[in-house]
Design goal:
elongated; 6-stranded mixed beta barrel; alpha+beta; two-stranded antiparallel ribbon
Length: 304
């Protein structure tokens, strides 16, 4: 169990100006500041990359801080961050020493990379969050936590008790809605495309009924007629896919803001979509193709 002043994804933020010893500092450079207890990192399973974590009794006279990987990569590039010094720009005479580097934590959004972060060991604030790691179910654990807090101090007010999974779900709610909406639109578009392909193939077969009858009267097998119609459908699908790939190449600039974790031209996604459209299109063409293969040659020859 550990504590922090601003929990990740809790819509709380604290930005502080700072300066790094030996770095060409810019005016008003900012980093996310956090105040934590020593057990917070283990409770949240935040990995230690270098150095050490805070202890219950930090050495006297040493202002220790822990930074994240993003901070170390940006401000301690090509040098060891452990032992480096960081000060607040409003108090440049007070230096803090980096004693550890931890993994990155996305505090404000799951869609953006982690910002540089500084963790302080003291917990001098009026309120905060307690992080508890347990194997117990969420509801019984919440009741136990409220009971313990009340036994410690009846005046302590416990706010909403949530799991990190619930906070992640809330942070993703907007994107999930957008994704669901786009999925519905994509499904409708796919259905209309399949209906259009089916209608086109059915119309083509009806226009070529006499031709099909002549081919079958001259010895063409039903499998030959089936392949003839499917080849026609495959040609239409190929032209449509090529046109769609060209259009998507330019359209990705407009939808780049909705993408996360993949590039604008992700080959796996493009290949998956093309495969889905090709298979769906061929399935939609099978019914007209089977109908053409079952035509009676004598009735087809009488067709005007």
């Amino acid at each position: 169990m550990g504590a922090i002043d601003d929990l990740p994804l809790s819509n709380a933020e604290d930005l502080r100006m700072f300066a790094v010893d030996g770095y060409p500092n810019q005016k008003s450079q900012l980093a996310e500041a956090r105040w934590v207890t020593p057990q917070y990192f283990s409770a949240m399973k935040i990995p230690l990359i270098a150095g050490r974590l805070f202890t219950d009794t930090e050495p006297s006279g040493l202002h220790s801080i822990i930074i994240n990987r993003a901070f170390a990569q940006q401000y301690f590039a090509n040098r060891n961050p452990i032992g480096g010094r960081v000060s607040r720009q409003d108090d440049p005479t007070r230096w803090s020493t980096v004693v550890g580097v931890i993994g990155d934590v996305r505090h404000t959004s799951l869609e953006e990379p982690a910002e540089p972060q500084i963790y302080h060991p003291d917990m001098e604030f009026g309120g905060g969050y307690i992080a508890v790691r347990s194997t117990l179910p969420a509801k019984p654990l919440a009741a136990t936590i409220r009971t313990i807090l009340h036994s410690l101090d009846p005046n302590l007010a416990a706010g909403d008790i949530q799991t990190m999974g619930e906070l992640e779900s809330q942070a993703n709610a907007r994107r999930r809605f957008q994704t669901s909406l786009l999925t519905v639109f994509a499904g409708v578009a796919l259905f209309l495309a399949l209906v259009g392909l089916y209608g086109l193939m059915a119309y083509t077969v009806s226009r070529r009924t006499r031709e099909v009858g002549i081919r079958m009267a001259l010895g063409a097998q039903r499998s030959d007629v089936l392949m003839l119609v499917l080849k026609r459908a495959a040609l239409l699908l190929a032209l449509g896919l090529v046109s769609g790939l060209v259009a998507s190449w330019f359209a990705t600039r407009a939808i780049q803001a909705f993408l996360f974790g993949i590039g604008r031209h992700d080959p796996i996604t493009i290949l998956s979509v093309c495969t889905l459209l090709a298979v769906s299109g061929l399935i939609a063409a099978i019914i007209p193709a089977r109908r053409a293969a079952s035509i009676d040659p004598m009735q087809a020859l009488r067709t005007e």
